[in-house]
Design brief:
alpha+beta, Aminopeptidase, 8-stranded mixed beta sheet, 4 helices, 8 strands, 31% strand, globular
Length: 172
């Protein structure tokens, strides 16, 4: 088990293929993914998990399984969408409905940010959330992201609140 971070209540580790059933409770749930293009079809989850595992091996950052220590269950995912370079990465997080309202998103995203700051290549972390998703917007602010304004996103076909967290400042 490749652990990337541990908090008081959570363990974040690289996804593995046996996480498929647990992933159905967040990525495969239409209500959970309502603000994120909808649920991922269950038959695609195995490929998603394999892609995130490969991304971690290749780039050193990825999306990670969030495990609740008390139950030893995967309750969500938190980490980074790495497009081409890890210099600028997008923070993402999704949790099963049973985990909502317990502060897990803030705890996990804070651990992810701490993990990313240890990578010398990462300079900027950005995030957005549907304006109707008040819980996600609060999470970003609690973790220290700065609201930069509204920004259009082609993938969601809407304008969303956009946030940034500069973690490396270039020296002049």
């Amino acid at each position: 088990m490749e652990v990337i971070a541990e908090t008081e209540r959570l363990i974040l580790r690289v996804f593995k293929e046996t996480d498929v059933e647990d992933a159905k409770a967040f990525w495969g749930d239409q209500e959970v993914m309502e603000h994120c293009l909808g649920a991922i079809p269950h038959e695609h989850l195995q490929k998603v998990l394999a892609a995130y595992e490969a991304c971690h091996q290749e780039k050193g950052l990825s999306m990670y399984a969030v495990i609740e220590k008390e139950s030893s269950r995967v309750i969500g995912a938190a980490g980074f969408n790495v497009r081409t370079t890890i210099e600028s990465v997008e923070l993402l997080y999704h949790f099963s409905k049973a985990a909502w309202g317990k502060g897990y998103a803030t705890e996990a995203t804070s651990a992810c940010v701490d993990f990313a700051t240890k990578n010398p290549a990462v300079k900027l972390i950005y995030a957005s959330a549907d304006s109707k998703n008040a819980g996600s917007l609060r999470t970003l602010e609690k973790v220290g992201f700065e609201y930069k304004g509204m920004k259009w996103f082609d993938d969601t076909n809407q304008e969303e609140p956009y946030y940034e967290l500069n973690i490396k400042v270039e020296k002049q």
